[in-house]
Design a protein that fits this description.
- This protein is mainly alpha-helical and about 160 residues long.
- It has one domain.
- Helices cover about 70% and strands about 0% of the residues.
- It has 7 helices and 2 strands.
- It has a two-stranded antiparallel ribbon with strand order 1-2.
- A hairpin with a 2-residue loop joins strand 1 and strand 2.
């Protein structure tokens, strides 16, 4: 592994998180591939990482705590991605999360009927692939790498601090 400083690793994680969010938005809004609800949930950790790493530059004395939070966020991302991958592969059944629309928009029975008529994307349907892999598969690898990296940084904080 490269022996960069914590600051360098956090910048790499920040930019990969930013690229991931922008890529997901590009695939959805420019290429027209609609995400399922779990795909949308998988974006949340990347947004949180961007916020946490940005906060780190203002709250430098809490850097080790922020690294711990990043470990938890990427662990959550890994669990959600693995669950989503299991649904895509047929290992798990789709949960209620996969069929729900935005509940805050449902105001009347007409809205409920309108949502029932609209086509929703199932969590098991992969609408976009890169090199034959779903974005969920890429998310598993990214999350796993970052969890291992951040745990190593957390355990050897003084060594990486430089």
């Amino acid at each position: 592994m490269f022996n960069f400083s914590i600051n360098t690793y956090l910048k790499i994680i920040f930019f990969i998180s930013l690229i991931s969010i922008l890529s997901a938005l590009f695939i959805e809004y420019v290429l027209g591939h609609q995400p399922c609800n779990l795909c949308l949930i998988q974006r949340i950790p990347y947004g949180l990482n961007i916020i946490l790493i940005s906060l780190n530059y203002f709250l430098k004395k809490n850097e080790k705590f922020i690294i711990l939070l990043l470990i938890l966020v990427f662990s959550f991302s890994l669990i959600i991605s693995f669950y989503h991958f299991g649904i895509e592969q047929g290992f798990f059944k789709e949960s209620a999360v996969c069929g729900l629309k935005n509940v805050t928009e449902i105001i009347s029975k007409e809205e409920i009927l309108k949502q029932l008529q609209s086509k929703t994307v199932n969590c098991k349907d992969v609408t976009f692939r890169i090199f034959g892999f779903s974005l969920t598969t890429f998310n598993i690898f990214i999350s796993l790498i970052f969890v291992f990296l951040l745990v190593k940084i957390f355990k050897n904080y003084e060594k990486f601090k430089k």
